[in-house]
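Q: Predict the bound structure with protoporphyrin IX containing FE.
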Amino acid sequence: MTPMDDIEAVRPWEDWKSSIHTAVIFFFVFLICLEVCLWIRGCGQKKSLPGPFPWPLVGNAMQLGQMPHLTFCKMAQIYGNVFKIKLGTHDIIVLNGESTIRQALVKHSAEFAGRPNFSSFKVVSGGKSMAFGAYSDLWKTHKKIAHSTLRAFSTVNTQSTKLLEEHVAAEVEDLIQVFLHLSSGGEYFNPFYECHVAIANIICALCFGKRYSHDDQEFKALLGRHDKFGQTVGAGSLVDLLPWLQSFPNPVRSLHQSFKDLNIEFFNFVKDKVSQHRKTYNPEITRDMSDAFIGLIDYGEEKVLSTEYVESTLMDLFGAGQDTNSAALTWMILLLIKYPHIQKKLQEEIDRVVGQGRMPTAEDRAKLPYVQAFIYESLRLSSFVPMTIPHSTTSDVIIDGFYIPRNTIVFVNQWSVNHDVNKWTNPDQFQPERFLNENGQLDKDLIHGVMIFSLGTRRCIGDQLSMLQLFLFTCILLHRCSFHSDPKEELTMNSTNGLTIKPLPFGVSVRARRLRRNQEILG
Ligand code: HEM
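A: Predicted complex:
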C-alpha cells in the first residue's frame, strides 16, 4: 500500500467523524432552542410557574449544589415561594415559606399527600412502605395502625410514658458510661456513633424487645450503612430523576447499588426478628410492637393489610426512628460545646428544679422551660430534616394562584421556614431565649412555628416520642455530665447532606459532674 492509499483510507473516517460532530452540536443547539422556546412560552402564560432556565437532559441538576435546601432559599428570593425546576425530564415544584407550605400541606392536605413514583421508593420495606408509599385508602389504614401502635408503646398515657422513660433512662446511663470511658485521660471522640447506637436501641427495643451493646460491631455496621439511605431518598437526590446515570459507572449509580443492598440487609434483619416473634406469639401477652402488629395484621378481624405489612411497618419505624433522633442528639451535643455558657445555664435550671436526689423525669418538662427552649432552638437552627420526603400531587391543585397538575413532584423546604428573616430575629444565631416570654415561660405560639416534623396528612408520626426522648436525653446527660470541646478544633455548623443532615465529625470530651459538700454541683 502506498502512503496515498493510507490517506484515502483515513479520509472517510475523518469525514464521518466531522459529520457526527456537526450533528451532535446541531442536536444540542436544537435542544437548547426548544427549551428556550418552551421556557419563553411558559413565561408568557398567565400565572405560569417561574423558575430557572432548565438545561437539556439535566434540567437544573447542576445548579442544586451540595445543599439543595440552601439553593432553593436563594432561588425563592428570585422567583418567589413557589417555583418550578426541572431535574432530568421531571418538572418539580418547590414550596418555601410557612404560609405557602401550610396552604399546600394543611389546606390542600389530600392533594399534596402523594409520593412520587420513584424506583428507589419501591425498594423500601419490601415495596410496602407506608412512609414512601402512594396515598390511597389502604395507605390511610396502614398509617392509622402504625401511628396508634407507636403511641400505645410511647406517649398515649402516663403508664406507657413511664415505661418508655425507664427504658430511655437505662439507655442514657449506658451511654454515659461509654462517653466517660471514651473520654478517659482527657481524650476527645466523635459522639455520633455512640448516640446512634443509644437511639437505635430505644426504637429497637420498642419494635423487637431487644437492645445491642455499644461493642456490637455488626449492629454498628448495620447502622453505619444507613447514611446511604437518606442520601438516596432525600429531595435533590438524582438517583431517580436521571435514570440514564444508571447505565455507566459513576457515584450516583454506586449510591443506588448501596441503597438497594442496605434495604435488603435491613429488611432481612427485620424479617428475622418477626419470624422469631411469630414462632413464640401468645395473644395474651404483647411483648413489643412486633407482637402488636402480628395481633392486628395477622390475627385482626379486618383483613385490610396482608401479613407482609407486619415486617414493612416495623422496618419503617425502625428506620425512621434511629436516623432522625441520632442526628438531633449529635447536633445538640455540638451546640452544648459550642456554647458553654448555655450549657451552664441549662445545668443550673436542671439542678434547681430536679436537684441531686433523683433523676429528671417527663413530669419535669413544664418546670424546665429553658431546657425545652434549648431543644426547639437546636431543631430550628440545625433544621436537620431540611426538606421533607418528596411529595407528589394526587389531583390538579392551585397554590398561591399557580396551577399545579396531578402527579407533579413536590419538594417542601422546611429549612426556609426555620431560617426566614421575616419570622425570626437573627435566624442564623443560636438563641434559646427567643422561645421564652417575659416571664421566662415557653412561648407556645413560637415553638409551633418551628417546622421539622412536616405538616398535614404526611406529618411524621414519631413527633411526640422524639420530643420526649430528646428531653430525657438532654436532662439526664446534663444532670450527670458536662461536655467539653477540643480547644484546638474550630466548631462549625457545616453538615453532611441527605434526608437528615448531620454535623461533620467533631471531638467532645465528657466529664462526670461532682457534688460539692453543700450539694452544689461543680461542672
Ligand atoms: C426528631 C426526630 C424526627 C424528625 C425531625 C422527623 C421528621 C420527619 C419528616 C420531615 C417526615 C416527612 C414528612 C413529609 O414527607 O411531609 C417524617 C416522616 C415520617 N416519620 Fe419522622 N421524624 C422524626 C422521628 C421519627 C420517629 C422516632 C419515628 C418512628 C418511630 C418516625 C416515623 C416517621 C414515619 C413513619 C414517617 C412517614 C409519614 C408519612 O409518610 O405519612 N419519625 N418524619
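A: The chain has a mean pLDDT of 89.
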